[in-house]
Amino acid sequence: xxxxxxxxxxxxxxxxxxxxxxxxxxxxxxxxxxxxxxxxxxxxxxxxxxxxxxxxxxxxxxxxxxxxxxxxxxxxxxxxxxxxxxxxxxxxxxxxxxxxxxxxxxxxxxxxxxxxxxxxxxxxxxxxxxxxxxxxxxxxxxxxxxxxxxxxxxxxxxxxxxxxxxxxxxxxxxxxxxxxxxxxxxxxxxxxxxxxxxxxxxxxxxxxxxxxxxxxxxxxxxxxxxxxxxxxxxxxxxxxxxxxxxxxxxxxxxxxxxxxxxxxxxxxxxxxxxxxxxxxxxxxxxxxxxxxxxxxxxxxxxxxxxxxxxxxxxxxxxxxxxxxxxxxxxxxxxxxxxxxxx
Length: 342
Ligand SMILES: CC(C)(COP(=O)(O)OP(=O)(O)OC[C@H]1O[C@@H](n2cnc3c(N)ncnc32)[C@H](O)[C@@H]1OP(=O)(O)O)[C@@H](O)C(=O)NCCC(=O)NCCS
Known about the structure:
Strand content: 25-35%
Strand order of the largest sheet: 2-5-6-7-3-11
Mean pLDDT: 92
Number of domains: 2
CATH architecture of the largest domain: Roll
Distance between the termini: 24 Å
Number of helices: 5
Structural class: alpha+beta
CATH topology of the largest domain: Thiol Ester Dehydrase, Chain A
Bound molecules: coenzyme A
Number of strands: 14
Shape: globular
Helix content: 25-40%
């Protein structure tokens, strides 16, 4: 167990490892960001469900409620092993914070690289009544500061949730004969029937399955726009406000919102149509921003064609995307300076 995490009778850290296969990767052999997101979520779901069932009481399944902004630090390739380790770092009354590290390993040379660090929040839902949120057994901390830092992260994400607006009304319509490099030219959708293998024991979609499909659509948008090898660079914080039931048909749509010199921001929506046993109308289950970069054969980021905005809404979204880009760039630079000074 690391210094950061829980101590005493708390849950033990877990590690999930898997060799990366050709169907995990794009044509250039780089593993899809969505594959890694799915593995991260699986590890988080195991450790949090195990912890939430560690005391006598109603059995439950931990549902993914939120993923903090995640950066993909270096590409993972086919043949490498992805080692995903997860540990619980904070518990509130009804939620569990899980920190996950992903390390890629070349098992021929032993070379290892950190590829991701992600923070996920899970909420235990009763197996008897999926709408009932249960209490989380508290963990014990090795040091008081760990609890204080965890509480600070918990308060910060709660505040961020209040400030984040869902783009519920936005829909993506097909356009006939769009010009290259316009928003309409690369916008794309996938339609998926939610089957049992996509779902938890409660019969609702795993957050990791949804994130994988979202990354797939974002990747199609990026590839259509620049027609080169593209990889996921980061995913902004995602809140999972709505469950998606087995038997629903989900439409995952993506459109490009912003391009910098060497990056592309893609907004992705997931809309669910619950057909089976459910009188409910189509609803927006989740939305998120993915950032993609285009890589040369040597793995260096390439300039991307600039996005041509046509409508007032596209221009507004471009400016909003630019704001997010400048903000994260400034944060990254500040972190790098801080690290250099230590
Ligand atoms: C997560 C969920 C159960 C919360 O329901 P809710 O009605 O907001 O529940 P509550 O307001 O009672 O909150 C319960 C706990 O969840 C936490 N929570 C709710 N939404 C959250 C989010 N987006 N991120 C992190 N924690 C969240 C709350 O902080 C609270 O914990 P606390 O009391 O310790 O502070 C609900 O939003 C849901 O079912 N989401 C979908 C889950 C899912 O299916 N995930 C996979 C999607 S593909």
